[in-house]
Amino acid sequence: QLKEKMKEQSWNILFVERGHGVSMFRTKKTRDLVVRGIPEALRGELWLLFSGAVNDMASNPGYYTELVEKSLGTCTLATDEIERDLRRSLPEHPAFQSDTGISALRRVLTAYAYRNPQIGYCQAMNILTSVLLLYAKEEEAFWLLVAVCERMLPDYFNRRIIGALVDQAVFEELIRVHLPQLTDHMMDMTFFSSVSLSWFLTLFISVLPIESAVNVVDCFFYDGIKAILQLGLAVLEYNMEKLLTCKDDAEAVTVLNRFFDSVTNKDSPLPPAVQQGSNLSDAKSDHPKVDITDLIRESNERYSDIRYEDVESMRCRNRLYVIQTLEATTKQNVLRVVSQDVKFSPNDLDELYELFKKEHFLSCYWNVNSPVLQHHDASLPYLEQYRIDCQQFRVLYHLLSPWSHCANRDSIALWTFRLMDESSHGLINFKQFACVLDTMYNGSFTDKLKLLFKLHIPPAFTEVESLSPSKGVDLSKEELIHFSQLSVSSAGGGLESADLKSSPEKGKGKVDIQAYLKQWQDELLKKEENIKDLPRMNQAQFIQFSKTLYNLFHGDPEEELLYRAIAVVTSLLLKMEEVGRRLQGPTSPVRSPVAIVEMSTESSPKGQEDGSSEQIEGSQAQSSRGNHEWSFAFEQILASLLNEPAFVRFFEKPHDIKARIESAKNLQLKARTRL
């Protein structure tokens, strides 16, 4: 206590000589006093001053109270994680063994998560905030946390901890410069990254006894990240001889842990019951006791040539490397997951991923209000890091799909997107994109036909659903013909923008992590879809399905043969439906559409594909007037088409995706501008 009084007196003299509060000058004497350790009574005040948090708090009176009221009772992923970690925050300290300390910690962390949802909550924030609450009031601790997370340690406290990884790369660079003999011995520099991560994230609080760690925090608020880098180098140099004799990483970690256990603070006024270092038995450590004040002073003296400007320069230099490494890891994880469900070669899948990611970034660049940006959440799994909306999918569909020559390709792109967007968020991930392309390129005849079938029934074909005869709407001949031409008429100029823009408002709330995990679990356990489970296709949907087939066959060498095959299949299906209805109700009058269909089949002149299409369409429309209840199951359509060799040859014809990918690389930006 006497030493504390002497420290306070030294600071009071400094305040008289150099000013107090925001008007105080930073001098060599100030640094010397910080290295000795800030007295307990002044620690909170000086932390606020050195970090600049005092200015933030003065500029926003009542802000913290308002945040606490707004965040009270909210339930998010961040609040769940906060509740889980509350009891793990300095559990040995009496301040956090009661509801008073725990409640204050909860309010500060929850308020910050509410203030900054991009960060929310990250592990290590609870440890740092616990120490802040020991020496500052609740509101002051909140603003100190803001200063650390948003200014002093940028990008540290998020899911990817990019800032911490960048500073670890800076630390490795400093080790090479100042401790070359250690780098020569440690062949793998990743050892230093794995060991020092907790040093940076918790400012040594997690590895040093609390009475020693607070002195490190003093230096951090005064000197910033430079103080942590200097201390890290001093720790490694102090243990140099033992580290050089270590045969593996585990032995080196043990050496460092024993060293940290031996660090004490002989000037600490904390009672022995609170001090962690004094509770350790001497038998636990081979190291002699090391005073934290001496260690910090030595780190300042030996590595005083490290300037903040140099650190910032090294940060910029290493940031790109760290981000590229993270991107490479993300890419490997995504491709590993997706490759299990598709037949594309690794190289083709890699190229598709790059095109998909490029489209994601193009949207972010050209449109700051893009739903991709609005729904971006770094806490999502790797697969969800990059997603595209409907307009972006249309661009890639035009460039990559083997069916992009189809006259109603915009309609097919829209229906395909809706089919994949099961969550109705207006966004799809790379796995969904790759799987649907894989079906188009590598799927069997049945797989491709099933995809086309599903594109023409709800939820993909939503306009049909709203006008479906199953809803009790009786379509006239003119209405049926007009409806069947809706998608094709849009081929020249594309669909209306209102149709192509999937609403980003759907499901805009917070991600329910439990529901998300259950969704992925269900997907892993889901069996192969049974074709008998597919709903039946009603008359309007079948007409549009036939029109899509006509458009797909345009330009094919067997175009005329395929057109005739469609007429034959349509006639056969209508006959089957007519027979089925007569068997179900033999006394009910049924107007037969078959004669009209047969006439269209026989009278279709060679090379007159438009006439053939109109005749089939007209026959379907007339049949719908006679009885608007008819519909077809997928098995009926599949069985009928399998009897036509031209159909089978068309859908089993191989397509070269490599050529498509090479073309897409050159045309992606032009295609976006044109669309």
From TrEMBL:
Record Gene3D superfamilies: EF-hand, putative rabgap domain of human tbc1 domain family member 14 like domains, Ypt/Rab-GAP domain of gyp1p, domain 1, Ypt/Rab-GAP domain of gyp1p, domain 3
Domain Rab-GAP TBC, chain residue ranges per copy: 37-224
The highest taxon in the source lineage is Eukaryota
Give start-end positions of Polar residues composition bias: 613-624
Tell me any Pfam family this protein matches: RabGAP-TBC
* Sequence segments annotated as region (Disordered): 267-287, 583-624
Chain coiled-coil ranges: none
Summarize the protein's role.
Involved in vesicular recycling, probably as a RAB11B GTPase-activating protein.
Record text on subunit structure and interactions: Interacts (via domain Rab-GAP TBC) with RAB11B (in GTP-bound form).
The protein here is known as: TBC8B protein
Source organism: Penelope pileata
Annotated gene: Tbc1d8b
